[in-house]
Amino acid sequence: MYLPTLALGVLAAGLLQGQTLTYQLAPSDGSRFALEVYKTVLMSGKKHVFVFDHFGGEAAFDPRKPAEAKIRFAVEADSVVCTDTWINDGSRKKVQDTARNQMMQADKYPQLSFVSSKAVPLGKEQYDVEGMLTIRDRTRPVRIQGRNGCTFSSSSERPGHVPRPDTMTGSCLNFSV
Protein backbone atom coordinates (compact mmCIF):
# COMPACT_ATOMS: atom_id res chain seq x y z
CA MET A 1 0.00 0.00 0.00
CA TYR A 2 1.39 3.40 -0.87
CA LEU A 3 1.06 6.64 0.99
CA PRO A 4 -0.59 8.63 -1.69
CA THR A 5 -0.16 11.68 -3.77
CA LEU A 6 -1.12 15.06 -2.35
CA ALA A 7 -0.64 18.39 -4.01
CA LEU A 8 0.62 20.88 -1.44
CA GLY A 9 0.41 24.22 -3.20
CA VAL A 10 0.81 26.12 0.07
CA LEU A 11 4.00 24.64 1.48
CA ALA A 12 6.78 26.96 0.31
CA ALA A 13 8.43 27.37 3.69
CA GLY A 14 11.87 28.19 2.39
CA LEU A 15 10.72 31.53 0.99
CA LEU A 16 10.59 33.31 4.33
CA GLN A 17 13.51 33.04 6.70
CA GLY A 18 13.75 33.32 10.46
CA GLN A 19 10.30 32.50 11.77
CA THR A 20 8.08 29.52 12.32
CA LEU A 21 5.46 29.44 9.62
CA THR A 22 2.28 27.43 9.98
CA TYR A 23 0.42 26.16 6.94
CA GLN A 24 -3.09 24.78 6.77
CA LEU A 25 -3.22 21.75 4.49
CA ALA A 26 -6.61 21.41 2.83
CA PRO A 27 -8.17 20.48 -0.49
CA SER A 28 -7.86 23.16 -3.16
CA ASP A 29 -8.17 23.30 -6.93
CA GLY A 30 -5.90 20.67 -8.41
CA SER A 31 -4.96 19.05 -5.10
CA ARG A 32 -5.78 15.48 -4.21
CA PHE A 33 -4.93 12.78 -1.74
CA ALA A 34 -4.80 9.36 -3.38
CA LEU A 35 -4.05 5.89 -2.10
CA GLU A 36 -2.54 3.51 -4.64
CA VAL A 37 -2.96 -0.22 -4.00
CA TYR A 38 -0.81 -2.39 -6.23
CA LYS A 39 -2.21 -5.74 -7.31
CA THR A 40 -0.20 -8.97 -7.13
CA VAL A 41 -0.21 -12.45 -8.64
CA LEU A 42 -2.75 -12.65 -11.53
CA MET A 43 -3.37 -8.90 -11.62
CA SER A 44 0.28 -7.96 -11.13
CA GLY A 45 1.05 -4.61 -12.73
CA LYS A 46 -2.46 -3.25 -12.12
CA LYS A 47 -3.35 -0.88 -9.30
CA HIS A 48 -6.45 0.52 -7.66
CA VAL A 49 -6.42 4.29 -7.19
CA PHE A 50 -8.56 5.69 -4.38
CA VAL A 51 -8.97 9.46 -4.14
CA PHE A 52 -10.16 11.12 -0.93
CA ASP A 53 -12.24 14.30 -1.13
CA HIS A 54 -11.92 15.33 2.53
CA PHE A 55 -8.50 15.78 4.13
CA GLY A 56 -6.58 18.38 6.05
CA GLY A 57 -3.90 19.16 8.51
CA GLU A 58 -1.17 21.52 9.50
CA ALA A 59 2.53 21.93 8.83
CA ALA A 60 4.87 24.12 10.89
CA PHE A 61 8.37 24.98 9.71
CA ASP A 62 11.15 27.34 10.81
CA PRO A 63 14.05 27.42 8.32
CA ARG A 64 16.46 28.17 11.21
CA LYS A 65 15.28 25.06 13.09
CA PRO A 66 14.35 22.50 10.42
CA ALA A 67 14.64 19.57 12.83
CA GLU A 68 11.65 21.00 14.71
CA ALA A 69 9.31 20.86 11.69
CA LYS A 70 5.94 19.28 12.47
CA ILE A 71 3.25 17.83 10.22
CA ARG A 72 -0.18 16.61 11.26
CA PHE A 73 -2.47 15.28 8.55
CA ALA A 74 -5.80 13.40 8.51
CA VAL A 75 -8.02 11.97 5.80
CA GLU A 76 -11.71 11.12 6.16
CA ALA A 77 -11.97 7.43 5.20
CA ASP A 78 -15.62 7.74 4.19
CA SER A 79 -14.73 10.24 1.42
CA VAL A 80 -12.94 7.58 -0.65
CA VAL A 81 -13.71 7.31 -4.37
CA CYS A 82 -12.25 4.61 -6.63
CA THR A 83 -11.02 6.22 -9.87
CA ASP A 84 -9.90 3.08 -11.73
CA THR A 85 -10.46 3.26 -15.46
CA TRP A 86 -9.41 -0.33 -16.19
CA ILE A 87 -12.54 -1.87 -14.62
CA ASN A 88 -16.24 -1.36 -15.43
CA ASP A 89 -18.60 0.84 -13.38
CA GLY A 90 -20.13 -2.07 -11.45
CA SER A 91 -16.72 -3.46 -10.50
CA ARG A 92 -15.46 0.01 -9.58
CA LYS A 93 -18.39 0.50 -7.18
CA LYS A 94 -17.77 -2.95 -5.67
CA VAL A 95 -14.05 -2.19 -5.19
CA GLN A 96 -14.88 1.20 -3.64
CA ASP A 97 -17.44 -0.30 -1.25
CA THR A 98 -15.00 -3.05 -0.25
CA ALA A 99 -12.24 -0.49 0.44
CA ARG A 100 -14.56 1.76 2.48
CA ASN A 101 -16.52 -0.88 4.40
CA GLN A 102 -14.13 -3.83 4.76
CA MET A 103 -10.55 -2.68 4.30
CA MET A 104 -10.75 0.71 6.05
CA GLN A 105 -13.91 0.03 8.05
CA ALA A 106 -14.76 3.73 7.72
CA ASP A 107 -17.75 3.50 10.08
CA LYS A 108 -15.49 2.24 12.90
CA TYR A 109 -12.24 4.05 11.94
CA PRO A 110 -13.28 7.36 10.33
CA GLN A 111 -9.77 8.77 9.75
CA LEU A 112 -6.40 7.84 8.31
CA SER A 113 -3.71 9.98 9.92
CA PHE A 114 -0.04 10.91 9.84
CA VAL A 115 1.76 12.68 12.69
CA SER A 116 5.44 13.54 12.34
CA SER A 117 7.84 12.87 15.18
CA LYS A 118 11.16 13.99 13.75
CA ALA A 119 12.60 15.94 10.83
CA VAL A 120 16.22 15.37 9.88
CA PRO A 121 17.91 17.89 7.54
CA LEU A 122 19.66 16.13 4.65
CA GLY A 123 21.08 19.30 3.07
CA LYS A 124 19.98 21.55 0.17
CA GLU A 125 16.46 22.02 1.63
CA GLN A 126 15.84 18.27 1.85
CA TYR A 127 14.61 16.44 4.93
CA ASP A 128 13.65 13.03 6.20
CA VAL A 129 10.34 13.35 8.04
CA GLU A 130 9.60 10.44 10.33
CA GLY A 131 6.27 9.78 11.92
CA MET A 132 3.40 7.42 12.47
CA LEU A 133 0.82 6.54 9.83
CA THR A 134 -2.46 5.10 11.10
CA ILE A 135 -4.85 3.24 8.85
CA ARG A 136 -7.73 1.58 10.64
CA ASP A 137 -6.35 0.14 13.88
CA ARG A 138 -2.82 -0.24 12.53
CA THR A 139 -0.17 2.36 13.23
CA ARG A 140 3.21 2.00 11.57
CA PRO A 141 6.34 4.16 11.45
CA VAL A 142 7.03 5.72 8.06
CA ARG A 143 9.73 7.98 6.68
CA ILE A 144 9.08 10.52 3.96
CA GLN A 145 11.83 12.45 2.23
CA GLY A 146 10.81 16.09 1.92
CA ARG A 147 12.04 19.23 0.24
CA ASN A 148 11.01 22.86 0.69
CA GLY A 149 8.83 24.22 -2.06
CA CYS A 150 6.08 21.58 -2.08
CA THR A 151 7.92 18.44 -3.14
CA PHE A 152 8.01 15.34 -1.04
CA SER A 153 9.18 11.96 -2.25
CA SER A 154 9.49 8.68 -0.45
CA SER A 155 12.80 7.23 0.63
CA SER A 156 11.56 3.87 -0.66
CA GLU A 157 10.22 4.93 -4.07
CA ARG A 158 9.25 2.50 -6.77
CA PRO A 159 12.07 2.26 -9.33
CA GLY A 160 11.66 4.77 -12.12
CA HIS A 161 8.92 6.75 -10.38
CA VAL A 162 9.52 10.49 -10.55
CA PRO A 163 6.98 12.57 -8.58
CA ARG A 164 5.66 15.82 -10.03
CA PRO A 165 7.08 18.94 -8.33
CA ASP A 166 3.77 19.70 -6.61
CA THR A 167 3.13 16.31 -5.06
CA MET A 168 3.89 14.41 -1.91
CA THR A 169 4.57 10.75 -2.45
CA GLY A 170 5.58 8.22 0.12
CA SER A 171 5.35 4.51 0.41
CA CYS A 172 4.48 2.12 3.14
CA LEU A 173 5.37 -1.25 1.76
CA ASN A 174 3.44 -4.17 3.23
CA PHE A 175 1.17 -1.92 5.28
CA SER A 176 -1.59 -4.51 5.65
CA VAL A 177 -5.01 -3.83 7.13
How would you sum up this structure, described in words?
There is one protein chain. The chain is mainly beta. It has a single domain (2-168), classed as Lipid/polyisoprenoid-binding, YceI-like (Lipocalin, Beta Barrel), CATH 2.40.128.110. 8% of the residues lie in helices and 45% in strands. The chain has one helix spanning 89-103; strands at 2-7, 21-25, 33-38, 47-52, 55-61, 70-76, 80-82, 111-123, 126-135, 138-147, 151-154, 167-168. The strands form two sheets. It has a seven-stranded antiparallel beta sheet with strand order 2-5-6-8-9-10-11, with no helix packed on it. A five-stranded antiparallel beta sheet has the order 7-4-3-1-12, covered by helices on one side. The radius of gyration is 16 Å and the shape is elongated. It starts with a strand and ends in a 9-residue tail after the last strand.
